[in-house]
Amino acid sequence: MIGSYSRQNRIGLFFVFVATSKVGAKVPTSRKRVLPQTDMPGNSDAWNGIGGGAVNEKVRTQGSQDGTKDLLDNPNSSGFNPSNSRAHLFHALEGLDRYPNYLARWNESDINCLENALEEVLVKVCEQKRSILDQKKGIQALVGELLEADGDRWRNLLRPPTNWSEMQDGVLDSKAYCTIIAPRLFTQATPPTVRQILAAEVEIELDVGQLTCLMNEEMYDVYSLSILSESFCGRVREFVSEVSRLGQTEKYANLQMGRRPIDLDTIGLGWINDLLFYLILRPISRHLFESSESFGDLNWRQGYVAAYSANPTEGRPRAQLITHTDDSEVTLNIGLGENFTGGAIEFRGLRGTPEAGKLIGTIQPRVGVALIHAGRHFHDVTTVTSGDRFALVMWARSWGGIRQQACPCCWLNRRKDDHCVCGPSWN
Ligand SMILES: O=C(O)CCC(=O)C(=O)O
Ligand SMILES: [Fe+2]
């Protein structure tokens, strides 16, 4: 049964395509620079990121426990230190939202601390925005250079398929094509076009009643299905490798590309994101996770290629990935190859459940095969012992559902007691 555990359960899903029409601070300029040097890789000269496995790399600091140090730092302070304590900052935000004239009872020094902390946040937003936009522009120039040098080689990949036959020949795994797309499975008289799907002009619905042998339930909460053809995966891998190779030349060194996974939208492969998201991930997730997760329709996606190597370099900076959960409701992970040993994905239970942290299963990536799991499912990648390993990963979020009713902490741990400070019944 979908959403319940049964090892190697063959889950078949017919896709029924139902066409519906699409429903579709100001930055302060004169603020003092208050942002402390961040520990994020890519921003810190000290971090060399090669061979490491961290995903959420920021070193977490939560201020002093008893406020004594804060008092010593600032004798006028009450111990309130929102710059070092995220909890203090959240308390203040909640108070501002909840009580009229909240700051009336505060001393001026604490108000100054709050003002500074909020400025620090804003500075961080502005800095990251600027650097990301700069980086995107730089990467787009780099892709332009690749196209100029060898346009014929890449143009086909960068141009989305325009019809189902191109999709069949060049992109999808043949089994996926036959099962998902073959016209006999479309219920409506006029099947949606590829263009309509990529532009999200049709809502794709999945009929769970009609089971086929499309998907496997590999273990609790982890499903697999063949999606992309091996040759297509190879082309994506080659393109990403080329982008990353050029990114390491002196001309583009300032982009520091090797340290981050490569974002598909930025390198002109956003159509792959759209295809996977609208055709596969959103409709499937409605059914796979409806009993274990609570979210509305997925409406946000980010797709990227993560590269690993037994001999990590700038372009393939990792040999493994530590245990973590994703900042997503649902994650899709497609093996892109190439020949490597090690690099298995280990799953360790859902955050917020008694299984959290316990190894419940290990999967060796297969080229073109997608794994779909809840973002809060703990997972890691074991050390790549030989060769290079690539994975196309998509994080998908829903800004409706639980993220609208819970603070980040309750969201992460899926507390559902309705008493989260952001919930409707908190008082
Ligand atoms: O490389 C993989 O297979 C997993 C990557 C991953 O977990 C992530 O990027 O969040
Ligand atoms: Fe992950």
Automatic annotation (TrEMBL):
Keywords: Dioxygenase, Iron, Metal-binding, Oxidoreductase, Vitamin C. It comes from the Eukaryota. InterPro entries: Oxoglu/Fe-dep_dioxygenase_dom, Pro_4_hyd_alph. Residues 297-398 form the Fe2OG dioxygenase domain. GO terms for molecular function: dioxygenase activity; iron ion binding; L-ascorbic acid binding; oxidoreductase activity, acting on paired donors, with incorporation or reduction of molecular oxygen. The keyword Metal-binding applies. Its cofactor is L-ascorbate. The keyword Iron applies. PANTHER family: 2-OXOGLUTARATE AND IRON-DEPENDENT OXYGENASE DOMAIN-CONTAINING PROTEIN 2. This is Fe2OG dioxygenase domain-containing protein. It comes from Phaeodactylum tricornutum (strain CCAP 1055/1).
